[in-house]
Amino acid sequence: MTVHTKGSGTTWVGRSIRRLEDPALVTGRGRFTADMPATHWVRFVRSGVAAGTIKNITAPEGASIVTAKDLAKLKPIRPMLSKFNYVAVGQPILADGVVRFTGESIAAVYAPSKDQAEDIADQIEVEISEGAPLIDAMDALAGDAPLVHADTKHNVIVEGRIATPGFEDVWKTAHKVLHVEARSHRQNATPMEARAGHAAYDGSTGRVTLTCTTQMPHLTRTAVCDILGIPESDLRVVAPDVGGGFGQKMSLAPEYVLLVWLARKLRSSVAWTEDRRENLIASFHSRDQHVQLEGAFDKSGKLLALRGDIVANIGAYSCFPTTCGVEPLMALAELPGPYDVRAYDCRSRGVMTNTCPMAPYRGVSRPVITFVLERLMDKAAAAFGIEPTELRRRNLIDKFPYTSATGLVFDDGSYKETMEMAIKAIDLDAFRKRQKTARDAGRYLGIGFATFSERTGYGSPAFAARGMEITPGFETVYLTIDPSGFVEARIGSSPHGQGLRTSLAQIIADEIGIDPEFIKVVHGDTDRSPYGWGTFASRSLVLSGGASLLAAQKIRAKLLKMASHFLEAAPEDITLQSGSAHVIGTDRSVTIASMARAAYHQTHIFKGEIEPGLTETGTYDPSGTFSNACHVAIVEVDIETGRVEMEKFLVAEDAGLIINPMIADGQVHGGVAQGIGNALLEEIIYDETGNILTSTLADFLPPTTREIPEIELHHVETLTGNSITKAKGLGEGGAIGAPAAVISAINDALSPFGISIDEMPATPQRIRAALRSSGKLPSNGKTA
Amino acid sequence: MKPAPFTRHVPRTVDEVVSALAEFAPLDGRILAGGQSLVPIMAFRMARPAHLIDINEVEGLDRLAVDGDYLSIGARVRHGAFHKPVIDGPLGKLLAFVVSHIAHYPIRMRGTFCGSLAHADPASEWCLVAATLDAQLVVKSVRGERIVPVTDFLEGIMSTSLAEDEFLAEARLPLLPDDTKFGFYEFSRRAGDFAMSAALVTYRLVDGVIADAHVGIGGAEDRARRITEAEDVLNGQAPSPELFVAAGEAAANAIEPLEDIQTTAEYRCDLVRAVTRRALERSLQ
């Protein structure tokens, strides 16, 4: 069920039109990287050990093989941060003498088919002198731990601290202090399509076209060309249909660099399709964090101060372009969440280990810090003897703009309103009665609330504040009405499932009076689209939407001027609708198609007053805006087995003006499903030797439709001045709030046992172990 | 993720199967039935048979019929054949209830009953059914045929008493008397996942007390088997919540639990206690 607070009017914006992307995708006509034929197929030979020194690589007679010594002229992948004591470590394209994680590429072989390449790779023998691997970040921090990279101290690659002045004075005034020690285990974003790349050399131009399943084509081009030392004009990067990314595909895959290098060397086409095992062990991981958090509250339950210590296990290398600072620094800046707290002292470190490198994953740290902060709020509510929602009511921000203790500026939002809406919709009082009845019968139901903010659509200053050498900020849109009267919007964002083509077409349609079906949005091709940053961080609708609006406003102004020529009326008396310009209150009109034709072929009729052509550019670089939501989970915990059954999930959400409600709902649904998986199921597990035990989808467990309950959505639309379309981003919110809500619900269900589940995923084994430790289990498991 | 090279052989008769096995088993040959376990592990190159003897074209092996007092299940009978009761009476109902727990629909349309037994995954539902019901297994080779009780067939994790040149041609499940009650309960992380523990119980009620109790546990030990300690608790007693709790306790105490990095012996025993009691509760529903 979906409840929208704003009805649809005569505009395209606000309507659930069907996605323009879908006909091809649902009829098998999508075009994915792995569909492309190639002359040579690459298979990577990957390390079977987590740490060691390569002694020898032996290939069978006649095998085509590439090793690090062939790539001596290539620069390593070395993303930069200028702040936070960042140590700029480099990642070779193929392991150069040292292996640092299980799954790291040591060599690449190529053959005329995928199967042959795999057979040859199978025969490559790699002799490695094994070292002692570091798997857990806390072990890596120990004084006597070996170093994953020699340049770091205690394996710390990045360290930030924010401490507000006079913190200790505030802390001393606390009435109650609550403490949470939380653990978020490692996860893999698991896009349905794993990574794939195809590089084809063009003999006549000397250019290479790299087709790959990326979220950021232009950054891929920049990175590959920097590493190879070639001009960007020699490389075209194409992202065709991409089967999900979730952040895993926004970081540079070293494999793609190898493909381009090899295509140039062979003057041919080469391709690689990652298999699921490679994806699970050697693509990027995330969310492996230890967080300590203390909160000081006054007598009334008002949060006075937060003290935290965050350790993020970032793996063996630092990802390009964000650097591995993305997790620890995001956590550092956003830990206080949507609560009004003025005193803050937190340290956050990124720690290197012999594990697969970390990359952003939908939500980036916020699923973890929201879970930890909401645990703190729930514990405080219990300590004060009040409903968790009441404690939140006393602490949520409600005056805007609000500048946080970490210097973030929150624009207009509805933190309290969405929570009140959720409480009403879920009928909290009725649930409490049902919960009591169930408990009397030996059944343990629980409800969990998570209130949070989702920072979206931030421009270059926000990234500059983090000290990033590359500050992904602005977006540009080239908008053209061609002589045929059709519209083409070429964008720098690179959507891969978000429905952005449809949403942007709706924004443009309202401005220029042409229906969305005649508006083609072109993306994912560096030859066709303006330099842009791709799609990540819930940014594309705000930034590309804003740039689309700006470009469309210019086109609109020009169309009105032209129409004024044709219709002999003042521009302000003319409207654009359904493909024509109309003089208001008359039956006089001219089609936009005929004006477009004239703009190119009949320019003399404008007597030099209007420039030829019909192309405009819009560029948008906003300060950023915060979406917000309240998530509610209802669960039942089987205390005999520790199993959690999801009964219901509810989201009351505010992402500003909703462009396409159906698409917005879909984003929330997908994010919540991932969040439930994070909370209950998904975990990458290494053994002590650094081998991954969860290298198949029989062991790493994303949720299926059977594990996802009904999701009820409610929307509030707070119109912000921080986004010219009034839309905020919402790509990550589902994944940010759901884990906290689910864990909170589990803890609510188990409150009679006096235990606290502060670990994700909350597997049945962990829950059952905690229940045992409580000493309060009934002997037959049936009654408390 | 492609298998290492292999040669596929496609015999048409059981005689051709056993002679192909005699020839190729010593050369690292294996039987391919539904392939729902073998093919994925070949794709991971964890199994690298040089020869596959594909029995999917063999005539007669798709036979599913009652012979006297047992149900005969040929080596090509797919899981999906049991979606609806294959015979009247409790056995058909039992198999139809259990089959819905096996993986997912597409897998059930391809994987085979006998293949599950020969693969001998401790979590296999069919291994649990065979063990609980005292199945007899018909094993063939060029040397002839032998009939093996399930207790002598399942030897451990993915391990059976099949000789190199033998294949499982048929499984025989004893028919259950019409007044047989049964209950099955499985615990897995997600719908369709491997069971972390499962219990199957059958018994008859004679004058209000339990007779001929069979309590089978799967997924918890290295193989599925009957737990006589739990059966002893039940036989001769009237069903009651307390009795079922006691049977669960007996089962949990009797097993030698599998452990892994996530799952302690203690937790596995917790699950066995729960699934046994719940299977018994279901037997009365």
TrEMBL record, chain A:
Keywords, sorted A to Z: Molybdenum, Oxidoreductase
SMART domains: Ald_Xan_dh_C
Domain of life assignment: Bacteria
InterPro entries in UniProt: Ald_Oxase/Xan_DH_a/b, Ald_Oxase/Xan_DH_a/b_sf, Ald_Oxase/xanthine_DH-like, AldOxase/xan_DH_MoCoBD1, AldOxase/xan_DH_MoCoBD2, AldOxase/xan_DH_Mopterin-bd_sf
GO MF terms held by the record: iron ion binding; oxidoreductase activity
Limits of the Aldehyde oxidase/xanthine dehydrogenase a/b hammerhead domain: 27-132
Protein name, as recorded: Aldehyde oxidase/xanthine dehydrogenase a/b hammerhead domain-containing protein
UniProtKB/TrEMBL annotation, chain B:
Domain FAD-binding PCMH-type: 1-178
One Pfam match: CO_deh_flav_C
UniProt xrefs under SUPFAM superfamilies: CO dehydrogenase flavoprotein C-terminal domain-like, FAD-binding/transporter-associated domain-like
PROSITE patterns, per database record: FAD_PCMH
Gene3D superfamilies: 3.30.465.10, CO dehydrogenase flavoprotein, C-terminal domain (3.30.390.50), Uridine Diphospho-n-acetylenolpyruvylglucosamine Reductase, domain 2 (3.30.43.10)
Source organism superkingdom: Bacteria
Keyword Oxidoreductase: yes
InterPro entries xref list: CO_DH_flav_C (IPR005107), CO_DH_flav_C_dom_sf (IPR036683), Diverse_Substr_Oxidored (IPR051312), FAD-bd_PCMH (IPR016166), FAD-bd_PCMH-like_sf (IPR036318), FAD-bd_PCMH_sub1 (IPR016167), FAD-bd_PCMH_sub2 (IPR016169), Mopterin_DH_FAD-bd (IPR002346)
GO molecular function: FAD binding; oxidoreductase activity
UniProt keyword terms in alphabetical order: FAD, Flavoprotein, Oxidoreductase
Name this protein carries in UniProt: FAD-binding PCMH-type domain-containing protein
Organism field: Tardiphaga robiniae
